[in-house]
């Protein structure tokens, strides 16, 4: 019964933390969107809709903060009313007391996993597309740069994605066995017939052979593509907006075609690292409360908030620095969580 009681208090603490943090993050999103109101057909209602569609993504991002502040709130209240002292006198160690918050934390992680795979990516991608259409922006990685991808013998550039099955301004650089340019194909548009065939329209083909350039014009020309429509769609989306399964498949695609995959691999491992960080924050909150049992709850919450902000900033710095230095993505993403778990473990043992 005592574990059920603690779990119920921790669950209430989680709900309080969500009710405070999630609206705050959403408010910052809304302020950022209000700067674009008036551009194209983007209106205030569009800004509110965009912010609302990002709520599942923001919930996933604040999960470690919810675990930290929610547990501090719950156990802090128990400490203030001397209930934790009574539990210690009854023979419950901090490790045994921590089992109740951990069970609630696992439920939180299950909810995050469902959102991460089935809800948040789809809504975030729809929000990005909706906003781009309202602002009259095209789906491209950079202004006038287009989308670039390659395999061993082809380099593909797509200037603009018109819809799921049509693209504009297609360039294909075909390489020979030695890696030299053998042909350059320029098409005004391309219809994506299936996973392997594209129908190019208004095509100019320049062939380079024997120190000569041969130019040929075609109204239509079929091209055997090495990228599927799903791969093209993935290339136009920010890595964080992809589900873990989409990221895994895209990392495999990039690596199989000899392309740089570190940014997508890091995004994948950071999703795993976020779950690890949630457990780490929850474990850290337990000795934090036991170690300051005489201080007020407000002081604990302020200190916990500062710890959460510091850990978040440090995690961002480590991720960006590691990507620049080309460190192992798994190490970059998992190291902060493992470090905090070890610190929490040592701290919790000292509270016995």
UniProtKB/TrEMBL annotation:
Keyword Membrane attributed: yes
GO annotation, cellular component aspect: ATP-binding cassette (ABC) transporter complex
Gene Ontology biological process terms, A to Z: lipopolysaccharide transport; transmembrane transport
InterPro entries to which the protein is assigned, alphabetical: LptG, LptG/LptF_permease
Keywords: Cell membrane, Membrane, Transmembrane, Transmembrane helix
Topology in the lipid bilayer: Multi-pass membrane protein
Listed transmembrane segments: 12-31, 59-78, 99-120, 272-290, 302-324, 330-348
Coiled-coil ranges from the UniProt annotation: none
Compartments in which it is found: Cell membrane
Keyword Lipid metabolism recorded: no
Protein name: Lipopolysaccharide export system permease protein
Protein's organism: Nitrosomonas ureae
